Amino acid sequence: MGDSLPPAYFAPLAARPLERVLVFNFLIHAAAMASMALLLLPGMPGGHAPNVVDRLAYLGNHPWLWRLGWLPWQITALTDLLLGIALLRTSWVPRVPALLTVLVTVAAIVPDQCGQFLWITRHQQHLLRVSRPACVRGDADARAA
Fold first, then answer.
1. Where are the domains of the chain?
2. What is the C-alpha separation between 105 and 77, in angstroms, rounded?
3. pLDDT tens digit sequence for 67-79
């Protein structure tokens, strides 16, 4: 009777959190890519805006869309950390590589999240403050950022 059960039925319980984190990680990365295309590219160098004036206009007119666009990317950092923790808690994953994964992930998250915070807040405000005169003149090259 036990032979008729699928192999997944016998999977260790510790693998279930790993599976859930992997699926959530995949989904949140997909959402982050969508937010990049829809909300962030109009305000980024090399994005949809043909010149810096249009880019600054987007940042000035849609500051909360800009900030909202970064939220999925911040959640991806959290899910990356959760993935490392799930690896540590999964019995069949070797401990040393799992621990190394968590340490490297934490080392990457700290500067990444600090940089995103500065990009979302201070950089946006700085661009708008410094480049406003160029935007008023319509001079896209005067304050290219």
1. 2-137
2. 8
3. 999 999 999 999 9
